[in-house]
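ZP: hey, is the flavin mononucleotide complex queued? I don't see it on the tracker
AM: it wasn't, my bad. submitting now with these inputs:
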Amino acid sequence: MSPEAALQWLLSRRSVRAFREQAVSRQTLERVLLAATSAPSSTNRQPWHFAVVTDPHLKRQMAEAVRSRAEELKRIIRRGHHADDFGSYGDFFHEPLQTAAAIVIPQYRSYPDLIANLIESGGGDPTAYQTAGSMQAELCSTSAAIMALLLQAHAEGLGACWMAGPMIARARIGELLAISEPWNMVGAVALGYPAEREAQRQPRKPLERVVTWFDEASQSPSPALIRAQSGEKAP
Ligand SMILES: Cc1cc2nc3c(=O)[nH]c(=O)nc-3n(C[C@H](O)[C@H](O)[C@H](O)COP(=O)(O)O)c2cc1C
């Protein structure tokens, strides 16, 4: 695949929230999960686990648990001053789960921070150093796995939506799927063959806003930096 074609393919991924009533084969799901486990992870610990739910009764129980918590949330928010800001947003907490052919619950576990322990055993203060623990390396690794899962799903012609919403029913989902310490749920991924026409691409911030280049040409300090260094106030 050419770099340009790869980029166009990446740009064609969308979050899909409504699915056809069509099962996803075990073989396809296994490829999607193999893609997930191809992700890089801190010290190759592979700190992830995936619960894959295709059982209709269990899926219904999970979706219902999230829906009823979302309703609870809506009732609370309606009493406050920002009810309009929330609007029907709560529906995004559970709707994709309702028609998903499979619901994947990604999980991560933490490990002792090896470098922090070594620093401590040498008499140092680990909090004085930013070790892997300070960037939640296991959560980062599992997030990378989820992205790989989403991309393989896209390659399979599946739609997918990674959702934080189901976290509101984390305790109930934990009960249903026997998720317990040391495992932590990282939202849910709704998967299935898309029912909706291809959604509009959600806008992205332009590169100028999200990238700072440090190349030779940009090494002359910006006016803002010169001002900051001289203690001068911004105009
Ligand atoms: C961590 C995370 C949590 C998200 N939670 C939800 C969710 O609860 N419900 C939902 O419908 N979409 C959810 N999304 C999907 C985002 O709304 C979506 O990625 C974003 O609007 C950009 O659209 P795109 O994925 O189609 O490019 C979530 C995405 C991420 C990465």
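AM: back. Residues 56-79 form the longest helix (24 residues).
ZP: great, adding it to the tracker
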